[in-house]
């Protein structure tokens, strides 16, 4: 286990803190797959929105990681 830097306090996170966002993305993707199975028209649009969420989040996080602070 890596030791923290001397001037930074050690932060303890609960499982909910760690897995909250991935769980919400997973639920959104599951809903998107369900919407795709339900029907056509509006359901297709909702499924595209829900299933594009991981792609959008990946691009946003990738851009933030490359942004110098």
Overall description:
There is one protein chain. This protein is mainly alpha-helical and 69 residues long. The protein has one domain (18-66). It is 71% helix and 0% strand. The protein contains two helices and no strands. The longest helix has 25 residues, at 42-66. The chain is elongated. The two termini are 26 Å apart.
Assembly form of the protein: single chain
Question: What order do the SSEs take from the amino end to the carboxyl end, as H and E?
Answer: HH
Number of helices: 2
- Give the helix/strand class: mainly alpha
Helical percent range? over 70%
Runs with pLDDT <50, length 5+? none
Counting DSSP E segments of at least 2 residues, the number of strands comes to 0
At a glance:
By secondary structure, this protein is mainly alpha-helical. It has helices spanning 15-38, 42-66.
Fold blueprint:
Blueprint: H1 15-38, H2 42-66
Helix pairs in contact: 1-2
What are the key terms here?
69 residues; mainly alpha; elongated
